[in-house]
């Protein structure tokens, strides 16, 4: 009998879990079900109304209230309604939270009968829960959208959170605390305010035919000047000429800088593409980045490295202060650098490089087929399944994928002189490169997924944090012997590979190329 009862309880639990996964708000099961003591004079709620909504989280909440209303405070109701109404400031959609219906209820709050009071209370709670869920985890789930995004869910106990909000005397402040607090998110909200203040545009595409340089005369310059005036880079003029003057060149350089382009005053294809973006497109870009930042970890750590993939930039932050920045090279579109969070664990000096399957298939095997000398020239040794070295002339195409290909340490190693490891399922890492000239390029989406770092030895010295054993002199000495050495990173440094293409800085809108073409597709999913 006891076994039967246990099976029935387990079945009920599994059924509830499935129901929760189907509900609009997808969260982990609440571990603790809070007991909520409603304030004022609560109204009884017919449990059938709540149960009919098939929302387990909502049902659990009202079970904790003994099916009584909780929003007796007019002040708290109006604070919540105000938050829901301005949810568009967070890149969200007020209509998602039943704003019109809730305001209609509020207008008649003093005259509502018990049934409508119950309906109002339930709708306000469910809308608040949904809003909290969207603030803390976004509207969409990146784990379902992208195979190479490995971000943990920002767990929040919805019912415990709502229970705390009911008790607090600082409701508006507590709701603000639920929002992402990273400086980039705050700058994105600022960017949304800024772009909303721009007038409606009527942009028509500027056709690129040839590069325009200062002192050229070109009919397109009139339209280009209008764009620069619109984006407040150039002062308005009574009349515009097709001559590319010095004032316009200065304005264009500012525009190029804001968009991560080469600041050379040359109007090429990349500059024309950025000029062709409309206000609406830029607004959508900001909104999708607000969504992404809701996916990212709420706590990056006291000390962490953050890499913005489209900006090709590594930033080291400690106690909210930026200590150093490095240029980086990231994966090209066909071999994207993944988005993830981890921690730095190990430095490898004079690393060997084992060729990964994709590079083997697409690059190395075709190169060997062209010339067996490729292996010797690249300092790559081939090992069979028994660990025996296979000479270039023993190498067989039929066995090519069963061999292990290892590039020896040295200045010509693809990983350079050092690599920095952080655990992840994609086998990517930070490393030096034997092509340091690539860091001078504007478009640095060039790698096969790993991240190459400019001036990696200075970064390594900082990370190892040992002035005696691992100062720059000791590091150089270790590298010169060309033997592989592994060193554990002792201090805790978080590591975050993220992706954002818009923000605001010093009251200026900043944009970067969407190198993996993710923005437009994400916006469609958010709004459709």
From TrEMBL:
One of its GO terms (molecular function) is transferase activity. The active site is at 431 (proton donor/acceptor), 450 (nucleophile). InterPro entries: LD-transpeptidase_YkuD-like, LD_TPept_cat_dom, LD_TPept_scaffold_dom, Peptidoglycan-bd-like, PGBD-like_sf, PGBDSf, Transpep_catalytic_dom. Pathway: Cell wall biogenesis; peptidoglycan biosynthesis. It holds the Pfam family PG_binding_1. Keywords: Cell shape, Cell wall biogenesis/degradation, Peptidoglycan synthesis, Transferase. The keyword Cell wall biogenesis/degradation applies. GO terms for biological process: cell wall organization; peptidoglycan biosynthetic process; regulation of cell shape. The keyword Cell wall biogenesis/degradation applies. Signal peptide: none annotated. Residues 303-479 form the L,D-TPase catalytic domain. Belongs to the YkuD family. This is Murein L,D-transpeptidase YcbB/YkuD. It comes from Flavobacterium sinopsychrotolerans.
């Amino acid at each position: 009998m006891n076994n039967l009862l246990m099976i029935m309880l387990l079945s009920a639990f599994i059924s509830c879990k499935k129901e929760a996964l189907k509900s609009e708000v997808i969260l982990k099961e609440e571990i603790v079900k809070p007991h909520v003591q409603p304030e004022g004079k609560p109204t009884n709620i017919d449990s059938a109304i709540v149960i009919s909504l098939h929302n387990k989280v909502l049902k659990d909440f009202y079970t904790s209230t003994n099916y009584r209303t909780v929003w007796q405070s007019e002040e708290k109701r109006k604070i919540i309604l105000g938050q829901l109404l301005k949810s568009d400031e967070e890149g969200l959609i007020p209509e998602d939270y039943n704003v019109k219906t809730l305001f209609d209820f509020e207008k008649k709050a003093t005259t509502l009968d018990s049934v409508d009071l119950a309906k109002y209370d339930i709708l306000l709670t469910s809308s608040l829960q949904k809003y909290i869920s969207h603030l803390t985890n976004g509207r969409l789930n990146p784990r379902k959208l992208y195979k190479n995004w490995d971000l943990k869910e920002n767990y929040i106990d919805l019912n415990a959170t709502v229970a705390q909000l009911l008790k607090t005397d600082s409701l508006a402040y507590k709701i603000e605390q639920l929002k992402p607090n990273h400086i980039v998110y705050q700058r994105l909200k600022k960017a949304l305010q800024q772009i909303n203040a721009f007038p409606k545009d009527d942009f028509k595409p500027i056709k690129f035919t040839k590069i325009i340089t200062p002192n050229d005369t070109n009919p397109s310059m009139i339209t280009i000047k209008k764009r620069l005036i619109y984006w407040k880079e150039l002062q308005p003029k009574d009349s515009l000429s097709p001559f590319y003057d010095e004032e316009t060149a200065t304005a264009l350089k500012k525009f190029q800088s804001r968009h991560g382009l080469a600041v050379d005053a040359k109007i090429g294809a990349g500059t024309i593409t950025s000029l062709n973006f409309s206000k609406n497109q830029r607004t959508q870009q900001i909104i999708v980045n607000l969504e992404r930042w809701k996916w990212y970890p709420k706590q990056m750590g006291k000390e962490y490295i953050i890499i913005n993939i489209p900006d090709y930039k590594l930033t080291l932050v400690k106690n909210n202060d930026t200590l150093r920045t490095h240029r980086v090279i990231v994966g090209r579109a066909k071999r994207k650098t993944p988005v993830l969070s981890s921690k730095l664990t190990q430095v490898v000096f004079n690393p060997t490089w084992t060729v990964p399957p994709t590079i083997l298939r697409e690059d190395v095997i075709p190169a060997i087929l062209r010339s067996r000398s490729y292996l010797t020239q690249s300092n790559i040794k081939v090992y069979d399944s028994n660990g025996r070295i296979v000479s270039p002339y023993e190498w067989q195409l039929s066995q090519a994928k069963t061999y292990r290909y290892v590039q020896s340490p040295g200045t010509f190693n693809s990983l350079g002189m050092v690599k920095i490891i952080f655990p992840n399922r994609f086998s990517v890492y930070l490393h030096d490169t034997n092509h340091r000239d690539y860091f001078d390029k504007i478009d640095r989406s060039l790698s096969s997924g790993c991240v190459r770092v400019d001036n990696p030895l200075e970064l390594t010295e900082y990370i190892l944090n040992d002035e005696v054993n691992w100062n720059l002199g000791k590091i150089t000495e270790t590298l010169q012997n060309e033997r592989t050495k592994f060193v554990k990173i002792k201090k805790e440094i978080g590591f975050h590979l993220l992706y954002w293409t818009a923000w605001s800085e010093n009251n200026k809108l900043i944009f970067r190329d969407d190198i993996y073409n993710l923005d437009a597709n994400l916006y469609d999913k958010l709004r459709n």
